[in-house]
Every structure is written in C-alpha cells, then in structure tokens.
Amino acid sequence: MFVDDLSERLANRIQLTSDGHKSYLVAVEEAFGHGIDYAMLVKIYGGETGGGGAERRYSPDKCIGIKSEVKIGNPDPKHIRHVIR
Prior knowledge:
3-stranded mixed beta sheet
C-alpha cells in the first residue's frame, strides 16, 4: 500500500533504492511498472561466529560489504549507495 501511494503522488520518473527484501521488488513492479529506475542494495555478511546450537546469535554477523543489483530501468550507480558502520 505504501509503494502504491508513493507512485500515485509522483508525477515524474524517480530513482529508488531498497534493501534486498524480495517483497520490495514485487511492490515496486506492481506500483511503477517500468516507469522507475530501481536498484537493490544487498548486504554481505561475515561468516557466522555463534557456533550454532544454543550459542547461535540471533542477529546477523557484521556487514562486510554490499552489492547493488539493478532491477528495473537504468538507475545511476553514483546514487545507489549505503554507509557501512
């Protein structure tokens, strides 16, 4: 509903970047069709350090990098970015 509402409020083509959650791709495709420049930023995490079992961590390991994936249109790479902390 959010992405549908967003698409209805915009008169011009935009560039959008989201994280790698697949439901965003479906929502953007349904709301904008091919009238958007859309990319996903996918985080790359380090190896698991919890050891498994009861000691396993419930949050992901440290983010060690990112990769961008163009999904729709032609997004400008210099505007697809994320700060790793």
